[in-house]
Design a protein that fits this description.
Shape: elongated
Number of helices: 6
Distance between the termini: 45 Å
Radius of gyration: 21 Å
Largest sheet: 4 strands, antiparallel
Oligomer: single chain
Structural class: alpha+beta
Length: 211
């Protein structure tokens, strides 16, 4: 009968077998090489299937704040609190759960996706002790350093509302639903300027069959 290894033993085995991962990614703005998420996920997935380990990520909560870069462009910084449960598939009671944080700044509507991707990537790298010597950033398209917008007479924007609307957009499946949602919001010109790009992006995703 084959001996059932403990989760810690399996993690140690995967860490030993995973080997070096090449820095095939290149940061478009700052020109440095980095280890791509796709490479990390593919190698880990292969060895986890082989040795019977599963990782279950969940987002516990997130914060969204507005930022502005030196060119005056407005973006959003997302800070996620995540839980990662690592399970021994041969014994579902043999598992560990770790708290983790992911963050990303984006000047479109992909901030949450970037933050989750970064969080998953770095959790896997830390779990299996994958080296990242010389790596400075998580994403290829890291935006310019952002600063908080200066105070002025411009009315304060409800960031929680913006985040809620963008989250709702991801659930909309048709152009008709998208149009109806836009009408239901009754946005003033200021909020329209913030949210119109997100609606246009979602319309394009719907046209291309993106869930």
């Amino acid at each position: 009968m084959t001996e059932c290894k403990s989760l810690s033993a399996k993690i140690a085995t995967i860490a030993n077998e995973i080997g070096a991962i090449a820095k095939d990614g290149k940061n478009a703005q700052q020109g440095y090489a980095f280890i791509e998420y796709a490479q990390v996920a593919a190698r880990a997935r292969e060895l986890q299937a082989k040795h019977g380990v599963a990782i279950i990520p969940t987002v516990e909560s997130y914060e969204c704040s507005e930022v502005k870069n030196k060119y005056g462009n407005i973006g959003y910084h997302y800070l996620l609190k995540m839980d990662f449960t690592v399970v021994n598939t041969d014994d579902e009671n043999d598992k560990i759960t770790a708290k983790w944080i992911g963050e990303a700044t984006d000047y479109g509507d992909k901030g949450i996706n970037k933050a989750i991707t970064s969080s998953v990537k770095y959790f896997i790298m830390r779990l299996y002790n994958i080296s990242e010597k010389g790596e400075r950033e998580a994403d290829q398209d890291t935006p310019p350093p952002a600063v908080a917008p200066k105070a002025g007479n411009k009315p304060k924007i409800d960031q929680a509302f913006l985040c809620k609307v963008r989250a709702k957009l991801a659930l909309i499946k048709t152009d008709e639903e998208l149009d109806n949602y836009w009408k239901q919001l009754h946005l003033n010109k200021q909020y329209q300027s913030y949210l119109l790009p997100s609606f246009k992006t979602r319309r394009g995703e719907i046209a291309n069959g993106v869930e």
